[in-house]
Amino acid sequence: MQMKHLVLALVSVLTAALLLTGCGGTDSKQAAKGDLKELTIGVMPDTDSIPFLIAAQQGYFEQEGLKVNIEHFKSAMDRDAALQSGNLDGAVSDMLAVGFARDGGFDVRVTSLTDGSYKLIAGKNTTAQKAADLAGQDVAVSRNTIIEYVTDQILAHDGLTGDSINKVIIPKIPTRLEMLQNGKLAAATLPEPMASIAVHNGCRYITGSDELGINPGVIMFTQQATTDKKAEIQAMYRAYNKAVDYLNTTDRAEYIDAVIEASGFPAEAKEALRLPRYSQATLPKESDVKDCLAWLVQKDLIHGNYSYNDIVVDLLNK
Fold first, then answer.
1. Coil, strand, or helix at residue 93?
2. For residue range 9-18, what is the model confidence (pLDDT) as tens digits?
């Protein structure tokens, strides 16, 4: 009998210990979520930023125990200034901005690519059917940005250089769209959804980054954030991937009004906007990174020699 009581006592102790361990593990997980610091992320009026808007609207950040402050910008210059002044942890951006930041002594890292699309759009009164037809004409871009990079790549594909057109520098995307629609430009390079809005309002699509296989859009964070807020960035990407799944499987009628309101897209976007099939967060290809950095070096805009590993950090698989 004594042996039986001893066995029962041991079983009771072990059971209690297991229960305490199990509860402790749950509490630790909840505590870890509760300990997550806030992230502040800058977005632009483009389709790259929509997964962040959806993640916020659908509560996916909250599900991960994370608070994300989304700051909206209308120009890359304003976004980058906010990042370098310490007001942002990260941003929806592009490889050009990353190269400039690194060469200027501000350490940022690419954490994933995006599904952005940049398109060359001809104005209503422009007869150009291809990029080569725009030689000598006014084409709006934003200087030393992904927009100018894509424009130069499009021109090179047609045997031209960036100097073959008259580049009109218009940093703010809504202003660029308005001037194109008002007939003040022969063409403009625009991100989505502004490109589709222009076509919807009578302008004409010529070509774009999708056709050329260019994919320079990225999400970047400060190096400090990738170190000090690694868990937060990983939680953000879990929410981001949930938003991607939602966008790819949900009727746009269920979210388009909320997206337009949150992003500040023009009202025409409700009819004109054509979303890509979004991809789960993944790292950019090495060739895309090298091509963008080579363009910057060629134009004497940066002087550092950066490798893929200098620029990209993998927080997706850890």
1. strand
2. 444 433 444 4
